[in-house]
Amino acid sequence: MCALDIVTPMPSIDLPLESLRTYQSADPEPGDFDTFWRANLEESRRLPLDARFETVDAGLPLFDVFDVTYAGFGGHPIKGWYIRPAGISSGLTAVVKFIGYNGGRGFPQDHLLWPASGRAVFVMDTRGQGGGWSQGSTADPVGSSAAQAGYMTRGITDPGQYFYRRVFIDAVRAVDALRQRPEVDAGRMVVAGGSQGGGITLAAAGLLGADVRAAMPDVPFLCNFSRGVGLALRDPYGEIARYLAVHREKADLAFATLSYFDGVNFARRAQAPAIFSVALMDDICPPSTVFAAYNAYAGKKAIELYRFNNHEGGGGHHERAQIAWLVAQQL
After folding, report:
1. 25, 282, 288, 318: which is the annotated catalytic residue?
2. Is 288 a known active-site residue?
3. Which one from 195, 259, 277, 288 is the annotated catalytic residue?
4. Among 1, 213, 222, 241, which residue's CB has the most CB atoms within a 10 Å radius?
5. Is 311 a catalytic residue?
6. Taking a C-beta distance cutoff of 8 angstroms, is the pair 189, 177 a contact?
7. CATH number belonging to the domain at 3-328, selected among 3.90.930.60, 3.40.630.30, 3.40.50.1820, 3.40.630.40
8. Which of 227, 228, 202 is nearest to 215 (CA)?
9. Residues 230-276 pLDDT 10s
């Protein structure tokens, strides 16, 4: 046997790679999915964006840094960082970056990759989060019925009340706000994020259509919920399992709600070219859930595989791949 004949061992929790490449989610799509989201977008866009970009001295002389507040879902104030290469006044490609689960926008120096590459970045703070691995600044003023600790089950019995309805609308509004910047080329908008941020990226790409030029969902969460809940060895999917272990009678209702927020359904509607990543030993976002979204994705697409990695995915290797891919997209 030569080196090329060696078969890469796969984790026992998921499918072999040849099956992943053709895997399709069996989770049903709501018949009124498009109507639901069209109504949400129309409702949100009736409210003024009220986007405020305030200059901040972050001690980063090569970059212009702005503390941003804009009106997200329900007109609620959402925070963000906007960072651009210093002195650039026109034609910028802009990356809207979404954060992983229970992280916040952190500090400006945490987000210098894209400005250092000559692009602008807008980092959306995720409402209510930021108490885990990086700090946040945005409250979620909307309450919830009974829920498991965390965010996954907040409003899970009603799509109109579910937590990610607010977050996904916040994401669309973030892109809308950035498109108004005079130095940003509104035709060169990129959405990006890892894990939860990858799931939000898919939602933004699906909801915004041609208003997004490229999408970069990295080890995306919030896809193929039934499989993720049944397979993932670590949270956040486990929050849903623990909730349903107590509220046994609500399983059908919960998964019906989740179907409105499934990245697979947004992927079917996305038009922008996309580069995905997947880690084949990921026990937070099992590879099959990522491939479910990737295989459904309607736009031109590519995927980077990290065979021996868990949820950290490709790390710096994948950032290099993203930079090269954006260059190839002339972004």
Report:
1. 282
2. no
3. 195
4. 222
5. yes
6. no
7. 3.40.50.1820
8. 202
9. 999 999 999 999 999 999 999 999 999 999 999 999 999 999 999 99
